[in-house]
Specification:
The structure is a homotetramer of 341-residue chains. Chain A is α/β, with parallel strands linked by helices. The first copy, chain A, is built from 14 helices and 13 strands. Chain A folds into 2 domains: 91 residues, Aspartate Aminotransferase, domain 1; 242 residues, Type I PLP-dependent aspartate aminotransferase-like (Major domain) (Aspartate Aminotransferase, domain 2), CATH 3.40.640. The radius of gyration of chain A is 20 Å and the shape is globular.
Chain lengths: 341, 341, 341, 341
């Protein structure tokens, strides 16, 4: 068996385990006030080219989305997201649990469109009855999206401009941010994101860490008493060091980008392999997730040797499956896959 | 000026005011425990032909939707509703405020389709990942819908059957129920609704009362400690008599249906008038709300003499407007309208 | 039988019913935008001597407390209240339902003490760990309290000063405000309250109305999009006229104070009567609620003829009961009571 | 400097880091479905002597309290806890954020008393007005408590009996459970807890793990769709292995108890040392937390060399400080402390 099931099938990058072991017996204060958290914050601010940023560390993606969104919205506001967005579908209603509506907009290949957002907000305010409706209070995008696709710098700038025009923050879910930044088909850099977004997070769980997401408030705009808000939502880790040390390691010697490039290299070879063998792609993805349409018999056969992720039904006899590479994917994994295909 | 702006532009039916005056100085216990509430409950149960029903009185529609839905759902569940449903759009996120997601399904003329609901629930359970998603825990329909349309008895029975198959309750928002029951084009009776739904409400605010909605749990299925749940949501009226006396009056001597028939009579004459004059209907509505497409200049001109409700933009030069009749609409109102058209 | 069970046993003051009847067929816009709501607002602002106030009308007390408190607190904040405060005990957890903690402080005869509030807030901020605690974000007091007692002007000014020193709003629950203002033992006027509080409400339900509470934000400090917040909490009445007309009537020709004085006159005579007959008072109340300690046999006997309210167990053989007068109490009621005592 | 500031100042027990490294490159499914989670569950069930238990792994204590309490309560219910309980004071209102009230009862040295709980519940149901109040729906106790104290087996059995009499679950917060079980002054075993409680958790964060708490539902009573509830609260860890491997290690070869005994040994020597030197104890604690009253000058001086935790003001010139030992405390730490005292 070989697994391309997800990008969180392995533990952590070995350098992270090493650093955890090296620092293990140091006495450190809790709740993210330790020096590793501060060092990681400084390195991230530098990588983002934002001296006025503030960085907080959370444990997982759904938690981060819930904490950030519900901390930044007024109670009469909801968050605009793609109908296929992670918060719209796959987080068990975590945003609604915190009292807010997800205002779902149609998306193409997982991506929102600046014009559609603008039209939505304009229509909202033009409606004489809008005081009886949920105000659009934030835009949430994923980059890469849930389908592995990416916004171009122009697309991102256009969405950012719409948000700033309407004075609502732009939040970018970067659970797989490394794989977006390392893509061969992107013109978007980390400083671009930090400039165009009001808040975003740098995913650790899927990019080399045991767990952890680094939330970046890009311009002195962290919500007041954010620590209390994290605590109140059960999201403040006692041993903050676990997150600080991991992100400090990932942002030392370019490790985060290095392992992201590796995953993309593996993804590109996976794509070539699948194309060579004549597999049909559901869409063109420039990142580490590849979506293939298999007929159901073929899927059953391949499933005996290869773990992949059932995505959705395509039609009665076909299924969309996802192959994901990650920092942990090896050449041996690809060799085995080739054999089974 | 004459107003067709909504079905809540007037106070209460005169008989209600009379009864409030007659009973005014009686000493009555609070919180819905008084004898008028109990009398109203008995009359409603009889009208519904459900001796095993339980009736509670609430003040308004959004409140009722929030209290009923959040009281009946488990926390991991959301409510299926039409994208155009009142809870989906025009209640300021009241359902999300209570922690639950509205699972919006496409609708036709405001109506959900049994097959679509069934497909949605089947797809949900077929998804290997559904434990990460919001469970469908209730179906919400409006009857009449927000577009004035009605479910046929067959359509309602089909939706009911889907709900019972999946063991999720069917909730009918009857804010304008009288106007649905009195329509010339319906085969649905109050006992039908009581049999096919698990919970529904009989709208008072828009059908002759100063305020008030009567929630009917149809088969001994009121949530445990519903009074406490009402209190907790700020929805338990101290002087419950205000609601009890109104519904007792509405359900005495067939008043509720009588005034509903009057509104329908007025609506039918309004329709004829608009048709005669060549106005274009947005859709065919068999109840008290009529939707007309006006060009914007025409709308401005007519607006000098007639209050109507801006509904939504039709295209750049046309607007959909709503004319509503109600128990309080008079022949004189129609005569004036004819003059201005 | 004669009833002193509560101050909401009767309907509405006859002038209110008259005005409802007179205005009944007027076409009015909904949701509190009608001219009666605006007239009532102007009269209340004038009575408060606050041209910069904003008035909103809600239906009941628990609803008002929930809407006001949850609309004004940041999510990391709770509300300071007496352990005996209505929101602490008798609202089914409505504040917690909206996500906020009630920070209960010990009280004397239902009253908070400025020094205790100050000490609480100082201790909070002195605690090195306070970022892990609920921030004190508002002070809630009842006037009259749940025990019928009143703050003196000095006491109220002292609490107000503490609140302003710490920059947290003071909210006064005036469900029975009329009976406080009309007391023979008060030096607090409506303009005093409007000056010393940031928000308060003028109770209607218990002072002559069918239902309704008038919330006064005293200095241009109504929360942004308060209408949407009301809607979202199910608290925006469609026929706002019902509230506007009632408060317009109550604030015309001094009716609110006149009927409050009547209730106090009745309460004073009730007190004299009870004292004459040798009944034991639980505490000295200067308003319409009187608390008497009865032995349980006496209570059972008296209960055959007089409705009163069981308050709490005093000891194994005695019970505290409440007698309440109101605008609707008559001399005949007192005469009957005298007979039964 | 030497630190006795808390029991979470160090990383993880070295065996845990070893196991994380050994298993690091194994492909495992996510979300707690991996074999290490299942192995850990089996070992915990065995240690608890409860074959019918169900174990779930969460990341931290506040999160666990929020998820367990809000998952098990009906919406009209609150949780009984000591006024000094962690959920009452130091979790930023996490329980209220989830919509529920903490019903705080007076406690002695952090401990609730069975008789008081019983009286509280009896009084609640005896109150004629209890439908307007928050129902007691669970009892929460900490063992050890926030003051390091322990319930005896008899005390625990008495509380359990009260809960079962009233049919409300007993939840034990075991954030420091190991240190309670290893105390020299306890007669309570892990199987006792599993028998007497309905749900409890075995703390990892403070007892050798990087993070993690193992929730044990003791008798087939895990809430329906608990995984979805965790997800909805942002509490479902993608790499569940991180928790599974840690608890599997802690429950292999008695490691959890072994390191707990070490902490207690260190605590007993700390106590002896402090007593020898004439320090004054705030209370007698049989576990790893020791509370000492220092005069403020003494505290400042000692603070130059020793990290300890400011607990609360004792009087104007004295402060209560806490010294905590843990699995990571060394003889060298004690030797240094002796020097500084």
């Amino acid at each position: 068996m070989v697994s391309f099931e997800s990008d969180y099938i392995a533990g952590a990058h070995p350098k992270i385990l090493e650093r955890l072991a090296e620092t293990n017996m140091e006495s450190l204060v809790g709740y993210g006030e330790d020096r590793y958290c501060r060092m990681a914050e400084e390195k991230i601010k530098k990588a983002c080219n934002r001296p006025d940023a503030k960085v907080h560390f959370l444990v997982g993606g759904t938690q981060t989305n819930q904490v950030v969104i519900s901390s930044m919205l007024a109670d009469y506001e909801g968050v605009i997201a793609a109908t296929s967005g992670h918060i719209s579908v796959h987080e068990g209603g975590a945003i609604e649990f915190s009292g807010h509506k997800v205002l779902a907009l149609e998306a193409t290949d997982g991506k929102l469109n600046a014009g559609n957002i603008d039209a939505y907000v304009n229509t909202f305010y033009a409606d004489g009855n809008h005081e009886h409706m949920v105000f659009p209070g934030m835009v949430y995008i994923s980059h890469p999206t849930e389908y592995g696709t990416l916004y171009s710098k122009d697309e991102l700038a256009a969405i950012s401009a719409v948000c700033r025009k309407h004075n609502i923050p732009l939040f970018l879910d970067g659970a797989r941010l490394g794989y977006g930044l390392a893509s061969r088909q992107t013109d978007v850099t980390l400083p671009d994101i930090a400039e165009l977004c009001d808040v975003f997070y740098i995913g650790g769980t899927k990019v080399g860490a045991l767990c952890g997401e680094a939330v970046v408030f890009t311009h002195d705009n962290a919500p007041k008493h954010f620590i209390t808000k994290m605590k109140q939502r059960g999201a403040l880790l006692a041993k903050g060091r676990l997150l600080g040390i991991q992100f400090d390691t990932l942002f030392t010697d370019n490790l985060y980008m290095e392992i992201s490039h590796h995953a993309i290299e593996m993804a590109e070879r996976l794509k070539s392999l699948l194309k060579e063998k004549g597999y049909r792609f559901y869409l063109e993805s420039p990142t580490n997730q590849q979506f293939i349409i298999l007929d159901n018999a073929q899927m059953a056969e391949l499933g005996k040797h290869v773990c992949m992720s059932f995505w959705e039904k395509y039609d009665d006899s076909h299924t969309i499956v996802r192959f994901a590479t990650s920092w942990s994917t090896t050449e041996e994994d690809l060799r085995k896959l080739e054999e089974y295909l």
